[in-house]
Amino acid sequence: MSEINKMPAHVAVIMDGNGRWARGKNRPRLFGHNAGMQAMKKIVIAASNMGIKYLTVYAFSTENWKRSTEEVSGIFKLIIKYVDSELKELIENNVHINILGNYNMLPVDSIEAIDKLVDKTKANDGLVFNIALNYGGRDEIVHAINEIIIDREAMADQGVSVDVTEDEVSSHLYTGVLHNDIPDPDLIIRTSGEERLSNFLIWQSAYSEMMFTDTLWPDYSPEEFAEMIGEFSHRKRRFGGREKEDR
């Protein structure tokens, strides 16, 4: 019998449904994003209290630039608001922040706020909270390949030729060597009823458990999160293998 897991070490969340939530209330999309930020705060606290070691959220994808200028600008302003309002509590709760993605394309004031968030929490050793920002799974893999090519060119100058391995690719991802080898997510949750990864952690999710809910992100509660963690604890993970009785 495969072992039953008690607690996922790493949970990743696709926070979907802010716009639809706002539309249902006849409010602008940014009203939904603000409500989504409040939901995210609650889940961070819940994950920390439950003893989950890593929480990763999909905050802004490389494809989100296609949205209106007003919405994109508003999202970046919300980032600054989040840092200003939550930094003290994040520090007090021993949360360590990482950014996955190339956030240097963001407005200068947003970059400065993010740098402050990362710097002020870097010594914390509690929950590792990864924010995927200007992130895309394919872009991440391309970035890793380009980094490996640079390494290979240096090796060629030394007369060394080595095949690329899975471990090497993993180590060059945003979750790899830059952030102390964050483990692959045990569980990926997506809200709003959609059932796809949408270019999120596509390398790392090879053996992740998946859970979906019709709940729109602003309505997603710590109670529903805890229910999903409980369901995960009873799943049997085989990682491509089979149980003995199936052989």
TrEMBL record:
One Gene Ontology BP term is:
polyprenol biosynthetic process
> Which cofactors does this gene product need?
Mg(2+)
Q: What are the EC numbers?
A: 2.5.1.-
Q: What GO molecular-function term can you cite, just one?
A: magnesium ion binding
Cross-referenced CDD domains:
Cis_IPPS (cd00475)
Which annotated residues bind Mg(2+)? 16, 209
Cofactor, how bound (note): Binds 2 magnesium ions per subunit.
UniProt: substrate binding residues: 17-21, 29, 33, 61-63, 65, 67, 190, 196-198
Q: In the UniProt record, does the keyword Transferase occur?
A: yes
Active-site residues, record numbering mapped to chain: 16, 64 (proton acceptor)
Keyword match rRNA processing: no
Q: Which InterPro entries match?
A: UPP_synth-like, UPP_synth-like_CS, UPP_synth-like_sf
Matches recorded under Pfam families: Prenyltransf
UniProt entry keywords in alphabetical sequence: Magnesium, Metal-binding, Transferase
Q: What class of enzyme is it?
A: transferase
Chain's role: Catalyzes the condensation of isopentenyl diphosphate (IPP) with allylic pyrophosphates generating different type of terpenoids.
Binding partners and assembly: Homodimer.
Family as reported in the entry's similarity comment? Belongs to the UPP synthase family.
UniProt-recorded name of the protein: Isoprenyl transferase
